[in-house]
């Protein structure tokens, strides 16, 4: 394969927009419900666990929050096989149904005071299914958008996938803030926290309608017509593209850990360690998330012109430089400065890194194993990041140091920065082979994709 290889039919602007919305909508729903759980962690701990030991209850809540560590990689493997065998569209529809039902079920579980230990057991089951379905969402949505985007706009259009993550998180943050403002603590604990989870049902129906109206991507349809669909996508991915799977894990680690710590865990940190009110802790994070959402598509757009790696280098260095001052100053700062610090590291630096990140993942793999390659690499990184709230709550309790979140983020981002030096530039604008082609799979060999060899 050469850099002049034909790209095949160019997707229409309308098709690209529809695919971008369809890919992002499920991700939005997933992260809206995930964020509700994270932002309502203190309340949920009192609802589902024994309140006699608040720290133990909070640890148990974050332990349940981290359950996708077990089920998400498994779901990623299962759904990636479907996605590379039967197509992106049908697989993503199944994923959305499971995710919506499991999320809504959390809002229906009675409290610990009502049914005792059965309450946390049901919560665990719901989180297991939720994590399993989430394992297939991100990689499939990214592949769907990328394969429906023109090469010159791919970085920008795919960037709406991680931006929708921020949108879901922002919506969850604003929703949680509004509930905390509108309801007294007793009503919030009694029934108010359930509303966000129950909204998963109508949101899921809307998302399912959008996804079912899509056409399968041209790239995957061509594989089917050529009888070139991978018979064992997982085995082929590991055997021929294992190095790029590890690259995806490496560059994803810093992003996912910083995301969870700065934009998901920090509201709990402000409440439990620094005694801020729920509304105060949520408003600073909401401002940072808004900056993150706006920065991502800007960075994705720029990456289409100057390449993916420069933006990721700038973002990772920014996170390394800012993270320690952020958590050093937060305990002695007012809300205004806390918001500025969160915006700097979690909004701008993280956003610059994230903008071209997901597009880089999909460009490292050929069409026939793209879903599997991205899913494996990303879900390995999620193992470390989803566990962050649980690990940090425990570390702070044991060490008494408020700098533990900074240490955790610094190590993860340093690993990502080191991985970046091994990464090829994948943007077509910088001379890389364009991998989103109907025929790319037929000539793919070795553990480095053709784009990586360019």
UniProtKB/TrEMBL annotation:
It comes from Rhodococcoides yunnanense. It is a multi-pass membrane protein. SUPFAM superfamilies: MFS general substrate transporter. Coiled coil: none annotated. It is found in: Cell membrane. Gene3D superfamilies: MFS general substrate transporter like domains (1.20.1250.20). InterPro entries: H+-coupled_symporters, MFS, MFS_dom, MFS_trans_sf, Sugar_transporter_CS. This is MFS transporter. Keywords: Cell membrane, Membrane, Symport, Transmembrane, Transmembrane helix, Transport. Belongs to the major facilitator superfamily. Metabolite:H+ Symporter (MHS) family (TC 2.A.1.6) family. The chain crosses the membrane at residues 31-49, 55-80, 92-112, 118-145, 157-179, 191-210, 245-262, 282-299, 311-330, 336-364, 376-397, 403-423. The keyword Chaperone does not apply. Pfam families: MFS_1. PANTHER family: ALPHA-KETOGLUTARATE PERMEASE (PTHR43528). Residues 19-427 form the Major facilitator superfamily (MFS) profile domain.
